[in-house]
Amino acid sequence: MATVQATMAGSVWKILVSEGEEVKAGQDVVILESMKMEIPISAEEDGIVQKVYVNEGDFVNEADALVDVK
């Protein structure tokens, strides 16, 4: 299982996937907002979203778990 992690601290602006959804490597799964910039976070491998750990509006720190893909 691969855990998609935040690459920087910021707010979760948009969640682009839901649990049970199939994703491909490189597909954006979450968009963070930091310093008025939108930062897309992508899945690193193909799989099915097992768990979404965050909600829109949540604040996350660098390396926090966002989504599990298996």
TrEMBL record:
<feature type="domain" description="Lipoyl-binding">
    <location>
        <begin position="1"/>
        <end position="70"/>
    </location>
</feature>
<keyword id="KW-0092">Biotin</keyword>
<dbReference type="InterPro" id="IPR000089">
    <property type="entry name" value="Biotin_lipoyl"/>
</dbReference>
<dbReference type="InterPro" id="IPR050709">
    <property type="entry name" value="Biotin_Carboxyl_Carrier/Decarb"/>
</dbReference>
<dbReference type="InterPro" id="IPR011053">
    <property type="entry name" value="Single_hybrid_motif"/>
</dbReference>
<protein>
    <submittedName>
        <fullName>Acetyl-CoA carboxylase biotin carboxyl carrier protein subunit</fullName>
    </submittedName>
</protein>
<dbReference type="Pfam" id="PF00364">
    <property type="entry name" value="Biotin_lipoyl"/>
</dbReference>
